[in-house]
Amino acid sequence: MVSVSLMSPQQSSHPSEYPLPTFSKLGVSAPQNPDALKTASSWLAKFDANLSTANVEGVLGLFIHGTYSSVSDKNDPSALSFYWRDILALTWDFRTFEGTDIVRQFLVDRLSEAKISNLRLKLGADGKERVDYQQPYDDLAWIHLMFTFETAVGIGSGIVRLVPTPLAGSLGEICWKAHSVFTNLEDLKGFPEKIGNLRNRQPKHGRWVEERERERQFVDNDPTVLIIGGGQAGLEVSARLKCLAVPTLIIEKNARIGDNWRNRYEALCLHDLIWYDHMPYLPFPPTWPVFTPAKKLANWLESYAESMELNVWTSSTVLNAKQDEDTQLWSVIVKKPDGTERIFTVKHVVFAIGFKGGKGHIPKYPGMEDFQGHITHSLHHGKADQHIGKKVLVVGACASAHDICADLANHGIDVTMYQRSSTFVMSVKNGSQMFFGQLYGEDGPPTDEADRIFNSFPNLLNIGMAYRLMKQVKAADKDMLDGLHARGFRTNGGIKDAGPLLMVWSSGGGFYLNNGGSDYIIDGRVKIKNDAKIEKFTEKGVKFDNGSELEADVVVFATGLGHPIEGVRDICGDEVADGCKSIWGLNSEGETSGIWRDMGYKGLWYMMGNLAMCRFHSKHLALQIKAMEEGVFGERYSLED
Fold this sequence. Notes:
Protein name: FAD/NAD(P)-binding domain-containing protein
Oligomer: single chain
Number of domains: 3
Pfam family, one: Pyr_redox_3
GO molecular function, one term: flavin adenine dinucleotide binding
Keywords: Oxidoreductase
Helix content: 25-40%
Organism: Crucibulum laeve
CATH class of the largest domain: Alpha Beta
CATH topology of the largest domain: FAD/NAD(P)-binding domain
């Protein structure tokens, strides 16, 4: 996360700010015109020498030394710590290590096996080293450097942030030490992606159609990987695997790729900016709108599958998947469009069906069976004009609820939003631009580079950055928030007052990025009900526990999509589902649980997330599978729960 605007110096008084290496904590003043390239080159040379010789204490000497050393310090705003986030490169897992003792143990356990070498400053397209001095706030600054490196089996990239610290034995001089390090596996040695100069160079005179169909039907063999679900998650990991020459088949229950978006409610439109949503290998064209309509995205996904020559079976259903205890291979029964079944024996099964496979969660209330109107979920809500002349109650107050309410209001329909709990609201105009800074935009860096910078901030550190940023966003959104409050709409600052950051990872909901929906509440076209809990349904509507009643002909529940593990349960059974690791949510290191890596069963994976998450982490999942297939996968260094 990068903010380009400066704030005046401030005392770190909020618990969320404890990770920030402010000048007051470091005991220095703002550096004046530092030579970023010279400093970065010198530090990286020392880092390289100590890593390549597995000199743990030498490596630790290049980091800041603060007061943070135990969990008990985590709510102390004056504490100081440092971070090392690794994705696969050294751990074959997603890990964030914090503080001297924990980083020391990590290095002792992994340096000798990883065999890190050949650290070099990364060069940009212009041939210049990717090093710069950044000062996101008046009391916070660092030298940001990007580098490449090698391990025993892979090629990696890294990012370091060096902060100024007092030079021992001197008066007023500083030395630069690391506050955060990010290491990321990019490729496997000897197994590069088949792209660019490594693409297929053989002509297919008259044979392409036949060969593509044989490949798609898997006439001669079974795939190595079977992916359940053909949304963006399934497509992007399939594309990654194809470029790594791993035979893969997607099973999609809908008639067409993209139907998971095409068949949603008419008004659905992405709230993320287009620059954040590009897909691997095939970015959106420069004419693409900033906010993508769902049906347009659906068509793009269909064309993506065709352009990338992904193997997809549509109108097909996975009935069952069982693992052989002896071989650990997966037997997967697939029902084809003609009703016949085929049994595949595969090494890897990837679930890419989102939250509960898109079934939708409707809470149960007394009297629902007596209600004479229509009850549905936002997943199954179609066009607003179906409800003209009716009274509609939308239960929920996040993205889908706002979109549906605005669409209904545009058709002159009497609509009320029932808000069960407070919602974090941030405008796209102000908040999204500030949140993504200069990373994802028309003039931003290449998407791959932006992804690495964005993910180089551990969530534990990002909380502090997000907390400060949200204060700026709140000020910019003051008129909108005041207008919502005047209508009785309840808002909050997000978990730890850090906006949507932790809400995305913890539950995937609870927030709304306003791209117009809030205006309908502010001007009264969408009414708000939030002064009581639903007690029961009546024949004509809904009764609340304060005695009030609301008439309704239609009730639309925009109440989330359930839990991801239920999709696994439907196909693999209770025993496997109950034995899986937790899916989604953050663990104690601030890493997302259970997705993009080991789920607790060999060859079982879960791929999910928005377009940007899938773009970045599909490569990680594919690299793990490729490493296993080529016999170069090391020992996973996982957090002990």
